[in-house]
Amino acid sequence: MFFLSKEFVFDAAHRLDKYKGKCENLHGHTYRLRVTLVGLPDEEGMIMDFVELKRLVHEQVISLLDHNYLNQIIPQPTAENIARWVWNKLEPLLKNERRKLYEVTVWETADSFVTYRGSNDERCAESEG
Ligand SMILES: Nc1nc2c(c(=O)[nH]1)N=C([C@H](O)[C@H](O)COP(=O)(O)OP(=O)(O)OP(=O)(O)O)CN2
Ligand SMILES: [Zn+2]
């Protein structure tokens, strides 16, 4: 099995509702996003063409989030909720008979990040973003 990843960067503003601290105030981050697929190469030797993955993630995610106010798009936009939102956007578009989305990682700062691997891993009832 192969794992294929591509990373992206976007800048956005957010605030965390009911957060007791500085993050309740409007502020921004340069977010980093990593999308990872798992699968087997096709006859061209690719799980997925990096060029096509870049196009898809830009179209479905980056173009919506970059230089935007995340609270207008994702309720309570923590790194967790952003990662799940990205997963929900991309998962149906990436799967075929040889590959599927494996994980989504969102860095809020250089040393703070969350990885999401889909609803099978979730144990809590949550509101979908
Ligand atoms: N589990 C989570 N915890 C926090 C999140 C989150 O998304 N998931 N988000 C925040 C805030 O957005 C905050 O901006 C992040 O704060 P922090 O990690 O402290 O980042 P800083 O760069 O501001 O850290 P400094 O050490 O002050 O430079 C909070 N928690
Ligand atoms: Zn923040």
Automatic annotation (TrEMBL):
Pathway(s) it belongs to: Purine metabolism; 7-cyano-7-deazaguanine biosynthesis
InterPro entries according to UniProt: 6-PTP_synth/QueD, 6-PTP_synth/QueD_sf
Superkingdom, natural source: Bacteria
Any GO BP annotation: tRNA queuosine(34) biosynthetic process
GO molecular function: 6-carboxytetrahydropterin synthase activity; metal ion binding
Family annotation (Pfam families): PTPS
Protein keywords: Lyase, Metal-binding, Queuosine biosynthesis, Zinc
Record-linked Gene3D superfamilies: 6-pyruvoyl tetrahydropterin synthase/QueD
Entry note: cofactor: Binds 1 zinc ion per subunit.
Catalytic activity entry: 7,8-dihydroneopterin 3'-triphosphate + H2O = 6-carboxy-5,6,7,8-tetrahydropterin + triphosphate + acetaldehyde + 2 H(+)
Cofactor(s) demanded: Zn(2+)
Residues annotated for Zn(2+) binding in this entry: 14, 27, 29
PANTHER family: 6-PYRUVOYL TETRAHYDROBIOPTERIN SYNTHASE, PYRUVOYL TETRAHYDROBIOPTERIN SYNTHASE
Annotated family: Belongs to the PTPS family. QueD subfamily.
Protein name: 6-carboxy-5,6,7,8-tetrahydropterin synthase
